[in-house]
Structure formats: C-alpha cells, structure tokens
C-alpha cells in the first residue's frame, strides 16, 4: 500500500546505550557533588583538630531530632551506594558492548586521546573502585590503619598522613580521580546534551578542568599540609 | 532499410519519431495533457506490479522513492555498497530551476530556450520544455525533504547565476549540491525500504535485460534483469512488469574522466544489444577546468568548479622552450593569454567547449605546461596573481578557498603562489539510450532516465542542468509516464524456466566464465587505458574523418586482443573486482566503436564537438542544420554486424535555430 | 618511492584473515594512496597473485566508498578520505600497515572491503523527512534562519564513510547518527518527526551491534568532513526530549 508515514518500530529489546550513558552521567554528577562536600569537610582539618572532630560529630547528628543519629549519613551512604552500583553497572555494560563491537582488534593502534582515555576511564575506574574500598577500610571500618589506631577522627587523619606512603596512596588515587573527572565531566556534559556548539565545547572543557583542579587540589591540601607539619 | 553499407561501417534504416508527446499547438499544455491522458493504476493494484530500477543516482533513487510511495512493488539495484554513493553525489555547482525568485526575468520559457540553445539545437523541444516546467517542483520537493540549500540572511533561498547564464536560477548547497540532493533522494528511498515497498539490492550489477514475448500479440517486452551479486558472485534472475535503467553516463570509456571508478555503460549497452536504440553516442561533454594528469599511475581526473574562470586568467608560454620554466620567472610579454587574445569579447569566460579545445590546441602545439605524460605536456596555467593583487588574498580565499585546498591536496602546489595548472577532461555524456516523450526506449517496458538517456541536453549540456534532469525524470516525469504502461499490467506471469529467461541467464554465465578463462597476460586496466587513449585522441573534443577511421580499426583490434589475452585472476564466485572491471571494459570496447561511427557520420561541428572538416574561415565550429538537425538513434547490428542508423528529425516550432558566435 | 606494505588479506567473511607483507617499488609521490594500491594490484596480477580487494568509487572525496585504516589511523595521517591522501605524505622506505575498518557491525567481505549496510538500515529506521513526492509546499513557504540552515548543512556534509566507527575505541556509530539527527533536526521541516527519528535511529544503531559513545572524540578527529562532536550531544539531548524512545 502507499505509505504516508513510517510507524516507529515495535521491538524495544535493546536498551539504549545513550540511556546507559545518561545513568553514568547522572550518577557521576552525584559523585562530584558529594566529592565537593567531602572535600569541604576535609579542609576543616586546617582549622585544627577540634574543628575537624566537631565537624565529624556534626554530620552524625545533623538534623536531630528530626533524623536519628547518623540519619543523614545513611541517606548519603545509600544514595552513594545506589549511584556506585548504577555507575559501575552501566559502565560495565557499555564496556561489554564496546568489546562486542570490535571482536577483531587492530594490528596497529594509534596512540591518542581516545585510546588512552578509553583505557583510563575503565581501568582507572576500576582502580578508583579499589581505592574506595581501601578508603572505607581505612577511615570508616578502620580495619586498616596507617600509623596507630585513634578514637578521634582528626588524630586518625593526622597520623595517617604523617607517613609519606600514606600520602602517596592518596595522592595516587587523586591522580586517577583527576583523570577520571577530566574526561568524565566533559563526557557527562556531552551526554546530557550541553555541547551544542564549538563555543560551548570550549566552555565545557574549561569547566571540566576547573572542577577537576578544585577537587584534586582541595583533596590534596590536607594530606600534604599534614605531611609538611602545617597542621598540628 | 538499405542493405548498402555506408562508409563501410553502418547502414541506414527507417526514420524514427516520438509518438507519445500529445499533438497540441501550445507547448505549455503538452505535459498537462500527457499526464491527463496517461492511464491511472488503482491503488489496490499497485502492489501487484513489480518495478525494477537499476541505478540509485538522482534519477534512480528519486524514481524508486516515488514509485514506492505510490505503492508499487519496487526492486532497486546498485553496484555500489550503498545507494547513497551513486556518482550524482560528486556534482558540485548547482541545480537550475525556473523559480524566478530573484525577479530577474526568468521563466519556464526562458529556461527552455536557454537549454535548447545551450544544446546547440540538437535536443527535442517537447522534452526540454517539460524539463523546464517541472524544474520548480524539484526545488519544492527537495526543500521539503530537508536538503540544506544555501540561504540568505532573511531565511529565503539563495540563487546564483551559473555557466554564463544571465539570470540567477541556480540553487546550490556550497560546492556539494549533488551530494545534498542525492542524500535527500537516498533518504526518501531508504524510507521506502523501511516501509517495505522498496527492496534494495546493493552490490548488485545488472548484466542483462530479459526481453520476452509473452505471446499476447504485443511483441517482446522488457520483463526483468539478470544481475550478479558482487559479494557472492551468484547470477540472479529478477522478473518484473517493467524495467527502468537509471544507470548514468559512459564517460569512463575515456578511462580518464571525472566519473567514478565504477561508472559504466554495461546496463545500457546490454539493453542496446537487446534492441534499445542508442541516441547520439558521440555527444560527450568536456570540462575545461580539471586538474591535469601527473603520470601514468593516474586513475581519474578531478574537476574543479568552472567559477574559477571568473577570476583566473588562462595562459601558456609564447615559446615552447619556456614551458619547463617556473611560471613566475616567465615575463609578462612572454605569456600568451590565448583566450583573451582570440576571443576579446568573452576572454576567459568562453563556453566550455571552446575553452577546452583551445587548451588542447595549445598543448598539441607544444606549449603545454606541467609534467609530460607520453612526451606531451598537457596543462595550461590558470593564474590568480592578478586577482590576488586586485582583490587581496583573503578575498580570493573566501571565494575559492575550498577549491584551492583541493588543488593543493592533489598536486602538492600552493595555487596562491604558483599558477594552477588545468586541463580539460570528460565529464558528462549527453548521448544515451534513445527514449520517447514517456522516457520509454525502443524496447517496450524498458524506461531510461537521467544521464543514461539521450533526451534533454542535445549536443551540449548547460551547467547545473544534469541534476535538474535527473530529479525531473525521477520524481516527476517517469512516475507519471510509467503508470500508463503499468495500467495495462500486470503482465502475464513469467516463469524462470521461460526459454528467454534461461537464455539470458546462460549468456551471462557464459560471458563471466569466458572472461575468467581467457587467462592471458594483460591486465584489464591496461586495456582500459589504451582504449581511453584512442578515444581521447581521436573521438575527443576535436575529430577528423581520418582519425575516427583509424580509431575504429584500433578499437576493433584491441577488442580482439582483449578476448584472447586478458588476465582476470580469481574465480567467478565471491567478490572479484577484476572480473567486474573486465565485464565493463568489454562493453566499453564495443561502445567505443559505435561512438566513433556516430562521430564519423556526423560531419558537422556542434555542441561540445569540433569536427575539423566543418569550420568557419576563422576556425570556429560550423554547425550544419540542413544535414544534421536530427537525433542519430543506432540499432545494434549484431556481433560483427554493422549498426543501423535511424534518424529522428528535430523540428523547431517554438525556438528559432541560430548559429552561435563568441567572437 | 619504495615501501613495505602490510595488508590484511581475508578471502571471505567466514575465514580468518592475516597480515601479508608486500614490497612495492616505483611509487610516485604524486599518486594517491589508492593509486599506489592500483599499482600493487597491477604488479600482483602480473605475478599471477590475486589482487587486493579494496573499495573506492568517486576518488574525489565525496562518495564515501573508500576507507582503510593506515598505520592505525582511519583514512591515514591527513584529515581527508583515503582517495585524497597522496603518497607525498609518506617517506621513501616507510612501512605502512593497512587494515580494513574493524567493527563487528561492518563485517569484512574480502581483504579491505567491509559491509556498511548497517548505516543504510539506520537511515531506513528514521533518517529522513517524510515528504511524499508532489506534496511539497512552495520552497519559500518556510524561511529558515541562516544559522540553522548553516548548522544543518555542516551536519549534512557527512559522507557515510564509516571512519568514525573505525576510529572509535568503542566501535560506535554515534557521529554518523548524530550528524543526520542534527541535520534534519535543525530544519523546520524536520520537526514533526524529530522525536520519533532519534528514538528509531538510536535503537537501530544499538540493535546493529555498534558500541556506545564515550565522548572521546576520535570520530571527529578521523572524520574527513570534520563533523564536530556536538552533533552527538545534540542527539543525546534530542533523545532525552523524546523520553529515550519509551
């Protein structure tokens, strides 16, 4: 029969890779928001042990009596866990798809931004995941200690970062985080449809550099300040 | 038919005439009348009618989309890996339409007049008028499809004047008009593929047309094609109620041309051998501003827009001994700005054929520049030094930047500093299968559209008219005329075991096997190259009686050698690009001879061709309307037989015949 | 010039391929990359070896037929199509590794020839404006602001060669798709089907087995027409507007 318009296809078996990317972007942005808060908290240590311990106590009792003790913390933790699962799951799904799209590899591969970051985001992402586990064991569950065990959060932090290798581990993690953010922020903006012109692209590049720098530098200030004895 | 051989080469048969154009005095009512007279097909019957369309350029894709939309059952074929890659894509300049958006006095009649005059009065008035008439609809259709034509700041479409025409009627999309129009048609075609009305057969090459007498007293009709699946090598039979050839031109008979590597004459030639007359095969268009050949390795020539001649000055050294010098070292008084010297009125803007022929003359005199190929330097300078000093480099860059970049990429020379070198190249073929007003060939049920037919451009095509014709045929003309033929269908059901089908299939199979089994010593390309040289030297822009006779002998010898000494490696199964090329070259070797015979019999200079025996006292082209105001429609004379000439007289009722002059 | 070529040879889609080394001499600097391969094929034919199959047609950079990966780069070191790449971009004695586009949705047919019909199916799924022949209003009925027309044109320059897929570490066809979605979405004529188009095309893209975009930009670096990455972002925005096609 003659056709006037073509109806949309019926089968919807394949979930859109753009939807997966959007999940990655949204969860990633949630992490960035959290990182900024986290970084702000870390910087408290520059105001002294009391201020830091006070802050650590305060986030546990935030919102009381409307919220139970550690209420906010648990909300955050659940949110972070959900975001982590979403981020890793969609990342893995996309990784699998990408591998499936090229089962015969190139004999010769060009070294460049794309091939570097394709690996950096994925393997680097896994490295960050490992770091998060370590970080939780170190500061939350306290199953790993650097230096000695302390009851005061501030004391734990200061003791840990008085060791050069403690700082080394965290600095390395920040390097991976920085790389992940540099491309991740750009990618999130792309995925969310913000890059609509060449000028916009430049603005997004700049923004990703600024945010990455703020976060990485912000996180690195306390450990180095402690290492160099600027915090007592 | 007389049995007498003329010139020892051909016979003359009965005259031929178009019988489909309605007999109305007012030419502007002709198409309306024809559309009304053409029978209609009930929408419910359309899906029972099978249409085969070969070729997916502008004419083929547009027809496929339109007939699919109408509800016919369409099978579309192309040799490319996707219908989007047909060679219409390479057209740069633009598309004409009598919209008169600029209010500069354009009209259907003026476009009609310009096209007939541009064709040097060798085209059929009725067809050309219709072309001008539907031209405006093309633009509407393309804009609706999303073709991104150039626009002005007010949001309306921009137009430019093109090829020396005095009105601005050319619509364009930067230098990629052909690409944008083809993508529009391709998308419309793919939409129908998605809707299931069109079945697409990419990487399929048509190798034979099936002509069957159904025994209903109507005589033989085109009922299908034999195609080779280029991926599997399988020879397939496809049957239908009607066959449309939209297979483009045959410029590649010259080996070096601006056509795509795969452009070929096979579909048209196979149809010719089955009874379709070939109209004006010697009418080819040579484009003056192409990048010259650099060596034997070269596989094709690249065209640059003719607009370059608006600001560039063409010259060669006055003395042959200066030709090797750096052009910047040649003093002004030692340069010969030959077009400005010979044609002071038009200078560098003389028509394509004159600019081309004079460039060849300069090189043949030994004053060509650039690398010598076979001992001859084939190139002339196109110099922008004056334009750059007058307008500034930036202004030149903004006008021609992309062309200059293209030139530099190919030649490695910077045209802002060193004059460009240009040379003419074959670009388009006006000749093609003979069709009537309905675009039907002499085989009933075989329609031919676009560059593959001979119909609209006479002996020379105006710039920006090829795209117009392809889309006019595909979107508007064929879908209306073909229904008159289809309304008489569905034709008797045909079985693959019908003797005519079996015979067609076997002949294709035999030919493929023969090509692979010769197993000689020479590559296909070497034959193609040699044929191209013969054609270019002797059947190119300037022809002589003696040269053409030599060419015919040489082509015959070459063809014989081909069939005993060609080397095609690999097997007929699977992808075999040498085999594909071999089949195409074999057909070019037959076509080349017919082109030379046609050129030989046309003892006049006309359109793009200069016949040395027919010139004015001052060496300009001399047309002979008394003898040659006709279309030469050639009938296949059988293998080894002489072709038969059928003349279609051209009658001019609405336009007065005039001899052109550019002095 | 003298060159050492390593070329992927594969007889058909069903058998595995391998790299084969060929030494070639007498290559002109002025010849194009494909003319260099023509010369190799002439020499192979003389020796009775089957020539290397590769695709090309217009050889002026517009039809999108040609394309091989040269030393790990789609279309080679210059930003242009393989047919417009000239041998002066290489040095005498260079080793050149030549591979086909590698992506599972582009299966190898033979040697360097791949099947890109997946692109056609993506277009067939929705890469068009439904305007039946003869139904169009006058071309001047709807003015289009120049900046929209220009952006549409920029996106419409895509030649469908597939270099974006070949260059993408994920084997994604997003640049190709985004270009078409941007081209049609920028024009007033393309609005009625805008949501349906992006949903249908992206769905077909994924169903063909292409990878997802990770915004690395290798596609745009390889694109002979320089289609910018923002067409992909545009596609993402359009798909969100379309509710992810659900």
TrEMBL record, chain B:
Pfam families: FAD_binding_2, Succ_DH_flav_C. The keyword Oxidoreductase applies. InterPro entries: FAD-dep_OxRdtase_2_FAD-bd (IPR003953), FAD/NAD-bd_sf (IPR036188), Fum_R/Succ_DH_flav-like_C_sf (IPR037099), Fum_Rdtase/Succ_DH_flav-like_C (IPR015939), SdhA/FrdA/AprA (IPR030664), Succ_DH/Fum_Rdt_flav_su (IPR011280), Succ_DH/fumarate_Rdtase_cat_sf (IPR027477). Keywords: Flavoprotein, Oxidoreductase. Residues 528-662 form the Fumarate reductase/succinate dehydrogenase flavoprotein-like C-terminal domain. Transmembrane segments: none annotated. The keyword Oxidoreductase applies. It comes from the Bacteria. Residues 50-467 form the FAD-dependent oxidoreductase 2 FAD-binding domain. This is Succinate dehydrogenase flavoprotein subunit. It comes from Ornithinimicrobium pekingense. The lineage of its organism: Bacteria, Bacillati, Actinomycetota, Actinomycetes, Micrococcales. The gene is sdhA.
TrEMBL record, chain C:
Belongs to the succinate dehydrogenase/fumarate reductase iron-sulfur protein family. Binds 1 [2Fe-2S] cluster. Binds 1 [3Fe-4S] cluster. It is an enzyme of class 1 (oxidoreductase). Its EC number is 1.3.5.1. The keyword Metal-binding applies. InterPro entries: 2Fe-2S_ferredoxin-like_sf, 2Fe-2S_ferredoxin-type, 2Fe2S_fd_BS, 4Fe4S_Fe-S-bd, 4Fe4S_Fe_S_CS, Beta-grasp_dom_sf, Helical_ferredxn, SDH/FRD_Iron-Sulfur. It comes from the Bacteria. Its cofactor is [2Fe-2S] cluster; [3Fe-4S] cluster; [4Fe-4S] cluster. Signal peptide: none annotated. Gene3D superfamilies: 3.10.20.30, Alpha-helical ferredoxin. Residues 18-102 form the 2Fe-2S ferredoxin-type domain. This is Fumarate reductase iron-sulfur subunit.
